[in-house]
Design brief:
- The protein is α+β, with helices and mostly antiparallel strands and 420 residues long.
- A four-stranded antiparallel β-sheet has the order 9-10-12-11. It has a three-stranded antiparallel β-sheet with strand order 3-2-5, with no helix packed on it.
- β2 and β3 form a beta hairpin.
- The N and C termini lie far apart (153 Å).
Length: 420
């Protein structure tokens, strides 16, 4: 509809309300347009009246039927403006309720301050001014440090630092079980660490007891926070540093170095033992095997001798003297076969002793009550008394002696094989 539509009984529809009766102008839109720019104060005042009027009513002035018509039109315009404003507010309120939860987070929704539910990652909507959403990261690993100067069981002072790693597993319990889960965990860590340090000696804390302190602290910390159900899970407790006071730090450093040197020597000894023990076991096994072989050989030889004696026994019973002489001769051959001295009887009254070891070295030897000739052969006096001693000029070379021994050995072997 046009603003200045003609034929409206002298009332134009200028939205700025410039169709007043001033100066005799009573129709169309001639009143304000012919007079120049409108009054800004008057425009703002009339706009305020239109927006502020809720139920109609006269605003004074024109009287008669024209005033009632204007009030009705103003009431209609005001209703439309209120509806548009309300719709805009609703749209803005609805649009402000959209929010996004990241992949590693979970949304904790509270309705008028009370926990309502959890929301998963993605695009979600909440009624603004009614629900509140707090995003909690449930995948990040959080760290908490605890440190301080603490008293040990042997009344020494040590500076200890510890790091605790944890993760949130229940966002609802993390936010609402205690006032601040992080502060509660820090206080519990400090308490557990001081308790463990107070039960340990300083030397143990600074040397080999670090692992024990770490495990005891983690166990005590878990027992402390379990009743509070704070919705967190401990991942690791790291015992970082433990330092003695500066006055005794040098002495403790020397003690630690000596302990490490001892551990190194122990490891070297273990490595040496691991190398020598298998060798010793192998030698022991070899000795045992040799002993078993020797036992088997001796046993078999004994059994063979028993069998040989069992075969000789009938012969001895049949001819004792002959069998005795034969056994004596065989025994002497076996005994004298390993000596280097040879007794030679030249069918005379003297017995010659051949020292082969001296002959092989080209030396001459002597024996008590004997004489040596130019060949190095020693002669002994005859066994029978009352006869004159005779000397023999028989001489033997080393090759002749070795040939004779070889012949004797072959003869002995032949006789032994015949007996067996």
């Amino acid at each position: 509809m046009a603003w200045n539509q003609p034929g409206n009984n002298g009332q134009d529809r200028d939205p700025w309300g410039s169709s007043n009766n001033q100066g005799g102008n009573s129709g169309g839109n001639k009143g304000g347009r012919d007079k120049g720019p409108p009054d800004l104060d008057d425009i703002f005042r009339k706009l305020s009246n239109k927006l502020g009027g809720l139920g109609g009513g006269k605003k004074g002035g024109d009287g008669g039927g024209n005033g009632n018509g204007n009030d009705q039109r103003r009431s209609g315009n005001t209703g439309r403006l209120v509806s548009i404003a309300a719709a805009a507010v609703v749209v803005i309120w609805a649009g402000s309720g959209f929010y996004t939860i990241k992949e590693a987070e979970r949304g904790v929704v509270t309705r008028f301050g009370k926990f309502s539910h959890l929301v998963e990652p993605g695009l979600n909507w909440k009624p603004t001014f009614i629900d509140q959403v707090r995003a909690v990261n449930v995948e990040a690993v959080r760290e908490l440090s605890a440190s301080g100067t603490m008293l040990t069981s042997d009344e020494n002072v040590v500076r200890v630092e510890m790091n605790v790693q944890y993760r949130i597993t229940n966002p609802e319990r993390y936010l609402f079980s205690v006032t601040s889960a992080d502060d509660s965990l820090r206080q519990a860590t400090d308490s557990a660490l001081r308790g463990v340090i107070g039960r340990s000696t300083m030397d143990r804390i600074l040397t080999e007891g670090r692992t024990v302190v770490r495990s005891d602290t983690q166990r005590e910390l878990e027992e402390t926070i379990r009743p509070y159900d704070m919705g967190i899970t401990l991942l690791d407790v790291n015992f970082q540093t433990a330092r003695p006071p500066e006055e005794v730090k040098a002495a403790f450093d020397d003690a630690i170095a000596a302990r490490e040197n001892r551990e190194q020597k122990v490891r070297e000894a273990e490595a040496y033992a691991n190398g020598e023990i298998p060798v010793a076991r192998g030698k022991a096994q070899e000795t045992l095997e040799k002993a078993r072989a020797y036992k088997a050989r001796i046993t078999l030889e004994a059994q063979g001798e028993v069998d040989s004696f069992a075969r000789i026994l009938p012969e001895y019973k049949a001819a004792p003297q002959i069998t005795r002489e034969r056994l004596y001769i065989e025994t002497m051959e076996r005994v004298l076969g390993h000596t280097r001295k040879v007794l030679v009887n030249d069918k005379g009254n003297s017995l010659m002793v051949l020292p082969l070891d001296q002959l092989m070295r080209g030396q001459s030897g002597s024996a008590p009550a004997s004489s040596a000739d130019s060949t190095g052969l020693m002669r002994t006096p005859p066994a029978s008394s009352g006869s004159e001693r005779a000397s023999s000029s028989t001489s033997f070379s080393p090759d002749d002696i070795m040939d004779q021994r070889r012949v004797n050995s072959q003869r002995n072997d032949t006789q032994r094989e015949g007996r067996e």
